[in-house]
Amino acid sequence: MLPQLAACLLAFAVTTTLIPWVMRVAREHRLLDYPDGGRRVHTEAVPRLGGVAIFIAAAVATVFVLAWDRFDGSIDLPMTPILPGFAIGCAIVFAIGIIDDLRGVSPLVKLAAQTAAALVVVAYGFRVDLVTVAGAAIYTLGPLSIPVTILWMVASPTPSTSSTAPTGSRARSPSSASRCASSWTSSSTTPACS
To answer: In this structure, are residues 79 and 184 in contact, taking their beta carbons and an 8 Å threshold?
Structure first.
């Protein structure tokens, strides 16, 4: 538990440190999201590319937990074979988020990229094998574990996909990448989410 808490605090510190720099760079290069009276509900232009800071923070936190495990060994991370899948999946989602921030991407292309990322993670062995209902009943998903895992990774809500997001963020990639990394670093006993 201590390594995960330390990783969370480290990710928060890295994000907090990098966000002002990312905002300044976005403003300098006019990479701003302007209000449109529709989906973008903010009142003034806001910088894009905040996902860069979040992605870097998630990567730093993940490396921190891996290093802690290597030097301490008390965490005993059984998911090491899954890590490349998470790294590739997160990189796919991060890349589509950057492209969306810089040029714009259709929702269908974003969905395809997120599905591809989820497929990569599943191909490396990550599965939602068990579902707990109301804290008591536990159901084994069996062959449904793969589609449920993909659906969970692609469709689970993130703060930046909310239609009332005050920042008007266009890409769900940073949150998806963060969710992807935090899923890996928060599970210390099993690769299955329950």
So the answer is: yes
